[in-house]
Automatic annotation (TrEMBL):
<dbReference type="InterPro" id="IPR043128">
    <property type="entry name" value="Rev_trsase/Diguanyl_cyclase"/>
</dbReference>
<dbReference type="InterPro" id="IPR035919">
    <property type="entry name" value="EAL_sf"/>
</dbReference>
<dbReference type="GO" id="GO:0000160">
    <property type="term" value="P:phosphorelay signal transduction system"/>
</dbReference>
<feature type="domain" description="GGDEF">
    <location>
        <begin position="183"/>
        <end position="313"/>
    </location>
</feature>
<dbReference type="InterPro" id="IPR011006">
    <property type="entry name" value="CheY-like_superfamily"/>
</dbReference>
<keyword id="KW-0597">Phosphoprotein</keyword>
<dbReference type="InterPro" id="IPR001633">
    <property type="entry name" value="EAL_dom"/>
</dbReference>
<dbReference type="InterPro" id="IPR000160">
    <property type="entry name" value="GGDEF_dom"/>
</dbReference>
<dbReference type="GO" id="GO:0071111">
    <property type="term" value="F:cyclic-guanylate-specific phosphodiesterase activity"/>
</dbReference>
<dbReference type="InterPro" id="IPR001789">
    <property type="entry name" value="Sig_transdc_resp-reg_receiver"/>
</dbReference>
<dbReference type="Pfam" id="PF00990">
    <property type="entry name" value="GGDEF"/>
</dbReference>
<dbReference type="Pfam" id="PF00072">
    <property type="entry name" value="Response_reg"/>
</dbReference>
<feature type="modified residue" description="4-aspartylphosphate">
    <location>
        <position position="66"/>
    </location>
</feature>
<feature type="domain" description="Response regulatory">
    <location>
        <begin position="17"/>
        <end position="131"/>
    </location>
</feature>
<dbReference type="Pfam" id="PF00563">
    <property type="entry name" value="EAL"/>
</dbReference>
<feature type="domain" description="EAL">
    <location>
        <begin position="324"/>
        <end position="566"/>
    </location>
</feature>
<protein>
    <recommendedName>
        <fullName>Diguanylate cyclase</fullName>
    </recommendedName>
</protein>
Length: 566
């Protein structure tokens, strides 16, 4: 682990209490020296009995224990601790590679598993994942305390000096006070376009009456999405929420829903006339300088005539703006001129049976047979709201091709796709109408499942009911926990390509892949290895009983399915 990563881990571990259990004195001394580089609060135990005594007298955020010890071994110790605290984070260290035992520990809820002799980087990787979860849980608890404190303060002050006298919304002073709490927040600043024209064209009385109507509608709508509403100046309103399970994608979606309702509403401007409004929305995720950054974002939106702007978009100005603009023009042209093209890469089993994964490509120039791969445009497409449309075009073109071509096709879906209800309705209708379900596999990347299991689960159940099969893509990235697989119940898992690429040179990665394969086969899940680039890799994966393989050794992506195989 490089110095910067170690510093980051050290910062994350500052307030983490750890109990390290190891019966071999030499290993205990050596490993504890390493652990003290990142943990200030570290206690040691030489066996399971001593560990239990310490555990009864002190709370520990994380327990790191050897598996094989006299009297009470690591597995028994973990079980006894889990009886007291089912959420206890535990990392097991062992020299044994017994897959059944590892599976049993995973099912019992251990946080990680490290092999002896201890690879420090691998141990730090497991610690990083556990500590990240611990800190996230602590933030949620802190968030709940802060909310409770704010509610208590609201009652204490009887809402007098914290409310805007015109709209009865919380005021600027109360917002500043609320922002003094350091929990992470999501916020949007809503500005009414051209509000001053109401004051100038009618009167300030009409303007105030309009603001009161607007504030009431905004507060009601914001409450549906758990936002707290503030009026901070004449025609500027701020919506705030603190939710550890929230994200920027949801923030943008909610901003669009709220602003759309506001613009559909007719507000009374006089006895004879109604008035509709247009708003501009600035959004941010953060906790320090939040107001200042919201104002910067709003200024950016006004300068660039944007209806919606996320604070992170401002970074475009300090990055390669010309390159971003160039790619955006290509994306616009590709959608306008029907140049988003599905490519097909073969996936084969040991008997030579072939199915194909559908991959997105862009034809940069209609006169040239040259195509851009996602690495050059995907992030910009997502950041600037082109991705959804491009994904839909790719998928429906592939489905249209499938109606006239035999074979099985594997399609990629992201969290954004899974939340797009209109797209999903059209997709389901097309699949049913053309009887395609049994010939389709839907791939979802592992990180999207972990980020929102409820959304993924709903999406998968809907299409599995039709007969569509499911694959988890990039499985094993970050050496993640297997436990959520029991809820998803996939038909396939695709090994993360970075693992496959390095398995010939790294014994531990080799063992990790072998463990995944055995684990999957125990639950009748087929395993696909991607990034298979050589004969040596192909033969090694055959030895490990991988069910399917994909990569340049098998065949390159091609718009012509017949040309995709080597």
């Amino acid at each position: 682990m490089d110095v910067n990563c170690l510093k980051k881990l050290r910062n994350m571990c500052q307030n983490i209490s750890v109990l390290y259990v190891e019966d071999e004195e030499g290993i205990l001394i050596q490993t504890s020296r390493v652990l003290r580089k990142i943990f200030d609060d570290l206690d040691l135990a030489s066996d399971g009995e001593e560990a239990l005594r310490l555990y009864k007298n002190k709370y520990y955020d994380l327990i790191i224990t050897d598996l094989n010890m006299p009297n009470i071994d690591g597995q028994a110790l973990s079980s006894k601790i889990k009886e007291h605290n089912t959420n206890q984070n535990i990392i097991i260290i062992s020299a044994h590679k017994d897959v059944d035992q590892i599976l049993k520990l995973v099912q019992n809820g251990i946080s990680g598993y490290v092999l002896k002799p201890i690879d420090v980087d691998m141990m730090f990787e497991q610690i990083f994942q556990s500590v990240e979860k611990i800190n996230r849980d602590k933030m949620i608890k802190h968030h709940n305390k802060v909310i409770k404190k704010i509610e208590e303060q609201s009652l204490l002050h009887e809402n007098k000096h914290i409310l805007d006298p015109l709209t009865n919304l919380y005021n600027y002073s109360y917002l500043v006070d609320m922002l003094s709490y350091t929990t992470q927040k999501y916020a949007m600043l809503i500005n009414i376009n051209g509000f001053r024209l109401i004051n100038e064209g009618y009167s300030y009385v009409h303007g105030n009456d309009f603001l009161l109507q607007f504030a009431n509608v905004l507060k009601t709508e914001a409450k549906k999405y758990d936002f707290t509403t503030f009026r901070i100046s004449s025609d500027n309103f701020v919506l705030i929420k603190s939710d550890m399970n929230y994200n920027c994608k949801k923030l943008r979606d909610d901003a669009i829903k709220i602003s759309t309702l506001l613009e559909k509403k007719d507000f009374k401007i006089s006895d004879e006339k109604d008035l509709s409004v247009h708003v501009r929305v600035a959004m941010i995720k953060g906790h320090s300088n939040l107001l200042e950054e919201l104002y910067k974002t709003m200024s950016y939106a006004k300068r660039n005539s944007l209806k919606y702007a996320m604070y992170q978009d401002i970074c475009d100005e300090s990055q390669s703006a010309k390159e971003i603009i160039r790619v955006k023009r290509i994306l616009q042209s590709s959608l306008k001129n029907n140049l988003v093209i599905p490519f097909f890469q073969p996936i084969v089993d040991s008997d030579g049976n072939v199915k194909h994964e559908v991959l997105m490509r862009i034809q940069e120039d209609i006169l040239k047979d040259e195509y851009l791969t996602p690495i050059s445009f995907l992030q910009i497409a997502k950041d600037h709201n082109y991705y959804n449309q491009m994904s839909e075009v790719t998928i429906f073109k592939a489905l249209e091709f499938a109606t006239s071509t035999a074979g099985v096709f594997s399609l990629n879906f992201t969290y954004s796709d899974m939340k797009n209800s209109e797209f999903l309705n059209s997709l389901e209708s097309y699949i049913v109408k053309n009887s395609l379900a049994h010939r389709l596999i839907f791939e979802i990347v592992e990180s999207d499942i972990i980020d929102d299991i409820a959304v993924a689960d709903s999406f998968l159940k809907r299409f599995k009911a039709l007969g569509v099969r499911v694959a988890i893509d990039d499985f094993g990235s970050g050496y993640s926990n297997f436990a959520y697989i029991f809820n998803i119940n996939p038909d396939f898992i695709k090994l993360d390509g970075s693992l496959v690429q390095n398995m010939l040179e790294d014994e531990k990665i080799h063992f990790f892949i072998e463990t995944i394969i055995k684990f999957a086969h125990k639950f009748d899940i087929k395993v696909i290895a991607e990034f298979v680039s050589s004969k040596e890799l192909y033969e090694k994966l055959l030895e490990l009983n991988v069910d399917f393989m994909q990569g340049y050794y098998i065949g390159h992506p091609s718009k012509n399915i017949q040309e995709s195989l080597r």
